[in-house]
Protein backbone atom coordinates (compact mmCIF):
# COMPACT_ATOMS: atom_id res chain seq x y z
CA UNK A 1 0.00 0.00 0.00
CA UNK A 2 1.26 3.43 -0.95
CA UNK A 3 0.48 6.10 1.66
CA UNK A 4 -0.95 9.14 -0.12
CA UNK A 5 0.96 12.42 0.11
CA UNK A 6 -0.21 16.00 -0.17
CA UNK A 7 2.61 18.51 -0.38
CA UNK A 8 2.12 22.25 -0.42
CA UNK A 9 4.70 24.12 -2.49
CA UNK A 10 4.51 27.68 -1.28
CA UNK A 11 7.00 28.83 -3.95
CA UNK A 12 8.29 32.41 -3.34
CA UNK A 13 5.40 33.42 -1.12
CA UNK A 14 5.09 34.39 2.58
CA UNK A 15 7.40 36.29 4.88
CA UNK A 16 8.48 34.44 8.03
CA UNK A 17 5.67 36.13 9.99
CA UNK A 18 3.10 35.15 7.37
CA UNK A 19 4.41 31.59 7.23
CA UNK A 20 4.16 31.24 11.01
CA UNK A 21 0.61 32.61 11.02
CA UNK A 22 -0.46 30.25 8.24
CA UNK A 23 0.97 27.17 9.93
CA UNK A 24 -0.56 28.16 13.27
CA UNK A 25 -3.91 28.29 11.51
CA UNK A 26 -3.53 24.99 9.67
CA UNK A 27 -1.74 22.80 12.16
CA UNK A 28 -4.54 21.75 14.54
CA UNK A 29 -6.83 20.55 11.75
CA UNK A 30 -4.00 18.95 9.77
CA UNK A 31 -2.97 16.99 12.84
CA UNK A 32 -6.46 15.53 13.10
CA UNK A 33 -6.27 14.02 9.61
CA UNK A 34 -4.63 10.61 9.29
CA UNK A 35 -3.88 8.31 6.37
CA UNK A 36 -2.03 11.06 4.44
CA UNK A 37 1.56 12.29 4.53
CA UNK A 38 1.13 16.05 4.94
CA UNK A 39 4.02 18.20 3.80
CA UNK A 40 4.57 21.95 3.74
CA UNK A 41 7.39 23.42 1.65
CA UNK A 42 7.88 27.08 2.62
CA UNK A 43 10.74 29.35 1.50
CA UNK A 44 14.13 28.49 3.07
CA UNK A 45 14.03 31.43 5.48
CA UNK A 46 10.93 30.12 7.24
CA UNK A 47 12.11 26.56 7.80
CA UNK A 48 13.69 27.13 11.20
CA UNK A 49 10.67 28.92 12.66
CA UNK A 50 8.23 26.36 11.26
CA UNK A 51 10.30 23.47 12.50
CA UNK A 52 9.88 24.74 16.00
CA UNK A 53 6.18 25.32 15.48
CA UNK A 54 5.71 21.80 14.12
CA UNK A 55 7.51 20.05 16.98
CA UNK A 56 5.41 16.99 17.84
CA UNK A 57 3.16 17.47 14.82
CA UNK A 58 2.46 14.93 12.09
CA UNK A 59 3.01 17.66 9.47
CA UNK A 60 6.38 17.35 7.74
CA UNK A 61 8.52 20.12 6.32
CA UNK A 62 10.22 20.27 2.95
CA UNK A 63 12.51 22.72 1.20
CA UNK A 64 11.97 23.82 -2.40
CA UNK A 65 15.51 23.36 -3.66
CA UNK A 66 19.11 22.70 -2.55
CA UNK A 67 22.64 22.73 -3.92
CA UNK A 68 24.47 19.44 -4.33
CA UNK A 69 27.71 20.34 -2.51
CA UNK A 70 27.90 19.91 1.26
CA UNK A 71 29.67 23.22 1.93
CA UNK A 72 32.13 25.70 0.49
CA UNK A 73 32.43 28.78 -1.68
CA UNK A 74 29.02 28.74 -3.35
CA UNK A 75 27.63 32.14 -2.45
CA UNK A 76 23.90 32.17 -1.96
CA UNK A 77 23.39 28.40 -2.07
CA UNK A 78 21.94 26.10 0.61
CA UNK A 79 23.42 22.66 1.25
CA UNK A 80 21.76 19.33 2.00
CA UNK A 81 23.47 19.21 5.39
CA UNK A 82 21.95 22.56 6.37
CA UNK A 83 18.51 21.38 5.34
CA UNK A 84 18.77 18.01 7.03
CA UNK A 85 18.74 19.85 10.39
CA UNK A 86 15.52 21.65 9.49
CA UNK A 87 13.32 19.47 7.31
CA UNK A 88 12.67 15.96 6.03
CA UNK A 89 11.94 16.47 2.34
CA UNK A 90 13.08 18.60 -0.57
CA UNK A 91 11.51 19.43 -3.91
CA UNK A 92 13.99 18.95 -6.76
CA UNK A 93 13.79 19.83 -10.46
CA UNK A 94 10.59 21.86 -10.29
CA UNK A 95 9.72 23.10 -13.77
CA UNK A 96 10.15 26.70 -12.60
CA UNK A 97 13.76 25.87 -11.76
CA UNK A 98 14.25 24.08 -15.06
CA UNK A 99 12.66 27.02 -16.96
CA UNK A 100 13.98 30.10 -15.15
CA UNK A 101 17.25 28.80 -13.71
CA UNK A 102 18.29 26.48 -16.53
CA UNK A 103 18.37 23.36 -14.39
CA UNK A 104 19.17 20.27 -16.41
CA UNK A 105 18.39 16.58 -15.95
CA UNK A 106 22.01 16.10 -14.87
CA UNK A 107 21.83 18.84 -12.23
CA UNK A 108 18.53 17.56 -10.88
CA UNK A 109 20.04 14.11 -10.49
CA UNK A 110 23.10 15.43 -8.66
CA UNK A 111 20.71 17.17 -6.29
CA UNK A 112 18.68 13.98 -5.81
CA UNK A 113 21.82 12.07 -4.89
CA UNK A 114 23.02 14.78 -2.53
CA UNK A 115 19.62 14.93 -0.84
CA UNK A 116 19.51 11.18 -0.30
CA UNK A 117 23.04 11.17 1.07
CA UNK A 118 21.98 13.73 3.68
CA UNK A 119 18.87 11.73 4.60
CA UNK A 120 16.40 14.03 2.86
CA UNK A 121 13.54 12.57 0.84
CA UNK A 122 13.46 14.12 -2.64
CA UNK A 123 10.23 15.01 -4.42
CA UNK A 124 11.49 14.96 -8.00
CA UNK A 125 9.31 16.97 -10.40
CA UNK A 126 8.92 16.06 -14.04
CA UNK A 127 6.58 17.32 -16.74
CA UNK A 128 6.33 18.53 -20.31
CA UNK A 129 5.90 22.03 -21.77
CA UNK A 130 2.74 22.93 -23.71
CA UNK A 131 4.72 22.77 -26.94
CA UNK A 132 6.06 19.29 -26.16
CA UNK A 133 2.55 18.23 -25.25
CA UNK A 134 1.12 19.55 -28.53
CA UNK A 135 3.87 17.76 -30.45
CA UNK A 136 2.98 14.44 -28.80
CA UNK A 137 6.36 14.29 -27.07
CA UNK A 138 5.19 13.91 -23.47
CA UNK A 139 6.38 10.32 -23.02
CA UNK A 140 9.73 11.04 -24.63
CA UNK A 141 10.29 14.06 -22.37
CA UNK A 142 9.34 12.19 -19.19
CA UNK A 143 11.57 9.27 -20.15
CA UNK A 144 14.50 11.66 -20.57
CA UNK A 145 13.76 13.41 -17.27
CA UNK A 146 13.80 10.03 -15.50
CA UNK A 147 16.79 8.62 -17.34
CA UNK A 148 19.34 9.25 -14.56
CA UNK A 149 17.18 8.38 -11.56
CA UNK A 150 18.73 5.30 -9.97
CA UNK A 151 17.05 2.22 -8.56
CA UNK A 152 18.63 3.12 -5.24
CA UNK A 153 16.91 6.52 -5.27
CA UNK A 154 13.48 4.91 -5.64
CA UNK A 155 14.41 2.31 -3.09
CA UNK A 156 15.31 5.02 -0.57
CA UNK A 157 11.88 6.60 -0.92
CA UNK A 158 12.14 9.20 -3.69
CA UNK A 159 8.71 10.60 -4.55
CA UNK A 160 7.84 11.69 -8.09
CA UNK A 161 5.56 14.59 -8.99
CA UNK A 162 4.16 14.75 -12.50
CA UNK A 163 3.45 18.40 -13.22
CA UNK A 164 2.53 19.22 -16.82
CA UNK A 165 3.82 22.77 -17.29
CA UNK A 166 0.67 23.84 -19.12
CA UNK A 167 -1.34 23.10 -15.96
CA UNK A 168 0.85 24.98 -13.45
CA UNK A 169 -0.62 28.20 -12.14
CA UNK A 170 -2.96 28.41 -15.11
CA UNK A 171 -6.17 27.22 -13.48
CA UNK A 172 -6.28 24.74 -16.37
CA UNK A 173 -5.68 21.41 -14.62
CA UNK A 174 -5.32 18.17 -16.51
CA UNK A 175 -8.36 15.90 -16.26
CA UNK A 176 -8.15 13.08 -13.75
CA UNK A 177 -8.14 10.62 -16.60
CA UNK A 178 -5.33 12.40 -18.46
CA UNK A 179 -3.18 12.59 -15.34
CA UNK A 180 -3.89 8.95 -14.49
CA UNK A 181 -2.89 7.87 -17.98
CA UNK A 182 0.42 9.72 -17.94
CA UNK A 183 1.24 8.63 -14.40
CA UNK A 184 0.40 5.08 -15.50
CA UNK A 185 2.93 5.50 -18.28
CA UNK A 186 5.56 6.69 -15.77
CA UNK A 187 4.90 3.65 -13.57
CA UNK A 188 5.17 1.27 -16.52
CA UNK A 189 8.42 2.95 -17.54
CA UNK A 190 9.84 2.39 -14.04
CA UNK A 191 8.58 -1.20 -14.15
CA UNK A 192 10.57 -1.82 -17.33
CA UNK A 193 13.64 -0.11 -15.88
CA UNK A 194 13.70 -1.50 -12.36
CA UNK A 195 11.00 -4.13 -11.93
CA UNK A 196 7.71 -4.61 -10.16
CA UNK A 197 8.63 -3.95 -6.56
CA UNK A 198 10.02 -0.48 -7.25
CA UNK A 199 7.24 0.42 -9.72
CA UNK A 200 4.52 -0.55 -7.29
CA UNK A 201 6.01 1.18 -4.30
CA UNK A 202 7.03 4.55 -5.77
CA UNK A 203 4.60 7.33 -4.96
CA UNK A 204 3.69 9.51 -7.93
CA UNK A 205 1.86 12.77 -7.28
CA UNK A 206 -0.01 14.98 -9.72
CA UNK A 207 0.58 18.74 -9.70
CA UNK A 208 -0.93 21.63 -11.63
CA UNK A 209 -3.90 23.78 -10.59
CA UNK A 210 -5.07 21.34 -7.90
CA UNK A 211 -7.76 22.79 -5.63
CA UNK A 212 -10.23 21.53 -3.05
CA UNK A 213 -12.80 21.53 -5.85
CA UNK A 214 -10.94 19.20 -8.22
CA UNK A 215 -8.76 17.06 -5.91
CA UNK A 216 -11.32 14.23 -5.77
CA UNK A 217 -11.11 13.76 -9.52
CA UNK A 218 -7.36 13.09 -9.24
CA UNK A 219 -7.21 11.20 -6.01
CA UNK A 220 -9.85 8.64 -7.01
CA UNK A 221 -7.58 7.54 -9.89
CA UNK A 222 -5.67 4.35 -9.09
CA UNK A 223 -2.26 5.53 -10.33
CA UNK A 224 -2.28 8.90 -8.54
CA UNK A 225 -0.90 8.85 -5.00
CA UNK A 226 -1.44 12.46 -4.04
CA UNK A 227 -0.75 16.00 -5.15
CA UNK A 228 1.87 18.73 -5.18
CA UNK A 229 -0.18 21.85 -4.65
CA UNK A 230 0.90 25.40 -5.42
CA UNK A 231 -1.53 28.32 -5.09
CA UNK A 232 -4.21 26.43 -3.15
CA UNK A 233 -1.71 25.37 -0.47
CA UNK A 234 -1.49 29.00 0.70
CA UNK A 235 -5.17 29.07 1.64
CA UNK A 236 -6.08 27.25 4.82
CA UNK A 237 -9.56 26.10 3.79
CA UNK A 238 -8.35 24.95 0.37
CA UNK A 239 -5.36 23.02 1.70
CA UNK A 240 -7.38 21.40 4.49
CA UNK A 241 -10.07 20.45 1.98
CA UNK A 242 -7.49 18.81 -0.27
CA UNK A 243 -5.89 16.86 2.58
CA UNK A 244 -9.24 15.76 4.06
CA UNK A 245 -10.65 14.48 0.78
CA UNK A 246 -7.43 12.62 0.05
CA UNK A 247 -7.55 10.89 3.42
CA UNK A 248 -11.16 9.81 2.88
CA UNK A 249 -10.94 8.75 -0.75
CA UNK A 250 -7.73 6.73 -0.35
CA UNK A 251 -8.86 5.01 2.87
CA UNK A 252 -8.81 1.26 2.45
CA UNK A 253 -12.34 0.04 2.99
P1 LIG B 1 -0.37 25.46 -8.89
O1 LIG B 1 -1.07 24.49 -7.98
O2 LIG B 1 -0.37 26.87 -8.40
O3 LIG B 1 -0.82 25.29 -10.32
O4 LIG B 1 1.19 25.03 -8.87
C1 LIG B 1 1.52 23.71 -9.07
C2 LIG B 1 2.94 23.53 -8.74
O5 LIG B 1 3.82 23.98 -9.45
C3 LIG B 1 3.28 22.82 -7.50
O6 LIG B 1 4.63 22.54 -7.43
SS content category: alpha/beta
Shape: globular
**What is the makeup of the main sheet?**
8 strands, parallel, barrel
Distinct small molecules bound, one entry per kind? 1,3-dihydroxyacetonephosphate
Walk across the major sheet and give the strand order.
1-2-3-4-5-6-7-8
Kindly describe this structure.
By secondary structure, the protein is of the alpha/beta class. It has an eight-stranded parallel beta barrel with strand order 1-2-3-4-5-6-7-8, surrounded by four helices. Helix 1 runs parallel beside helix 12 and helix 7 packs across helix 9. It starts with a strand and ends with a helix. The mean pLDDT is 97. It binds 1,3-dihydroxyacetonephosphate (13P).
Observed structural traits:
8 strands, single chain, alpha/beta, binds 1,3-dihydroxyacetonephosphate, globular, 253 residues, eight-stranded parallel β-barrel
Summarize this, please?
This protein has 253 residues and is α/β, with parallel strands linked by helices.
Would you spell out the secondary-structure blueprint of this structure?
Blueprint: E1 5-9, H1 16-32, E2 37-41, H2 47-53, E3 60-63, H3 80-84, E4 89-92, H4 95-100, H5 105-117, E5 121-126, H6 130-134, H7 138-145, H8 151-155, E6 159-162, H9 176-194, H10 196-201, E7 204-207, H11 215-219, E8 226-229, H12 236-249
Parallel strand pairs: 1-2, 1-8, 2-3, 3-4, 4-5, 5-6, 6-7, 7-8
Bound molecules: 1,3-dihydroxyacetonephosphate.
Amino acid sequence: MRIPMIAGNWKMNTTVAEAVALVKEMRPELDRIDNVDKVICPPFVSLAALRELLEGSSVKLGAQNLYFEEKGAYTGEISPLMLAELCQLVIIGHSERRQYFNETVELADKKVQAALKAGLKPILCIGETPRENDAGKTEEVLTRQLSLTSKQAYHTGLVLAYEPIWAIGTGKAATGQQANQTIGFIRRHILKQYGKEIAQSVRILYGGSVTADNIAEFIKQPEIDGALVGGASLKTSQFLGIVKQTSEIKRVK
